């Protein structure tokens, strides 16, 4: 939704002036209490400074910026796509590091293979911050032949101050692996004193990992060796700055056979080695050694079973699960290994529905049951948040120079700035969702 009017330019300017003089209480009530989707609120921020202040302010923060959004990083064409329920928003990525490696607190973290550059990005204000790891810290080199190699990346963002911690675990040095932490409050990089867990020789060179999950002051990663059938739950205590690890030997393995998600205050694990011939779609449950950790539990069977309602006459389909810590969840289906479909479980209404067709559906990178040469999962879920920490040098992306103008130069859509909104021909009923309760 973009506020617009027909008629002459003078008429439109008069209408804008009238809207700007509306009492602040009425504006807050309209933006806060009418169940507007996140995509619409992002557009409303672009109307004027007063509207941006309202959308970003405390009157709307807890009410609005708590809706989980699915994110897709199309690194091949330098775009990122976002959807909450009824629309896909396209953001053009103008910085070079364009592989999504971590996410938390509404922020996304991008990197490029073997690069020392990390970029923090908040899609709501469309601002990014570039961090470069020094090639030497405390007289210890962080790179080998100009390249940085690490095992895991973790990001934790303070929801109130917007300060953040960025952790690089298992940075490869000539004789061992160590870990680096960036603290945005002090704007400094430092080595972690506690040693990085020593994996066996094989896992050192054949490892795969998933994006980190923060829970109860710890970062968690699943790390596995697909060649030698060994899994590890890697944990980092953010307060004590100490590493912990649980190892598990498996009899058989394939990519995606165990998934990890932050859900309702826990790190939840989901066994995904299900096949249609098994006939027990909603009975899959992880029962391995990682449940020894009190912050870890098996994924809710009832939630997984709800995906069957999307497919008439079928037991269900394999999917990847993405969450952001609350009770909402997204399910990415790769139907027939070709067509892409995304569904959302909206906990507030106990509702499962398909999102509109993704605009990148015909050319997406995601493929089930395949091992890419450079593992990269382009998906994640976030809870959008306005604002960044003003003490750091955040840069606003020059989106206006990149957008095409299919509507004409005078249209509100063309003047809107940094996004393209695409509804797509997908599940039309997804637009008519139940109104949120105040």
Note the main attributes of this structure.
single chain, 438 residues, mainly beta, Neuraminidase, five-stranded antiparallel beta sheet, 7 helices, 28 strands, disordered N terminus, disordered C terminus
Could you please describe the fold and organization of this structure?
The chain has 7 helices and 28 strands. It is mainly beta and 438 residues long. The protein has one domain: 6 Propeller (Neuraminidase). The longest helix is centred in the first third of the chain and has 12 residues, at 9-20. Pfam families: F-box-like (PF12937). This is F-box domain-containing protein. Residues 20-63 form the F-box domain. Residues 398-438 are annotated as: Disordered. Residues 402-412 have a biased composition (Acidic residues).
Q: In summary, what is this structure?
A:
By secondary structure, the protein is mainly beta.
What's the arrangement of secondary structure elements?
Layout: H1 9-20, H2 24-32, H3 38-44, H4 49-56, H5 58-64, E1 69-74, E2 79-83, E3 88-92, E4 99-104, E5 107-111, E6 117-122, E7 127-132, E8 136-137, E9 140-141, E10 152-157, E11 164-172, E12 177-183, E13 188-191, H6 201-206, E14 208-209, E15 213-215, E16 218-225, E17 230-237, E18 242-249, E19 258-263, E20 266-271, E21 296-298, H7 301-305, E22 319-322, E23 329-335, E24 339-346, E25 351-354, E26 379-382, E27 395-396, E28 420-422
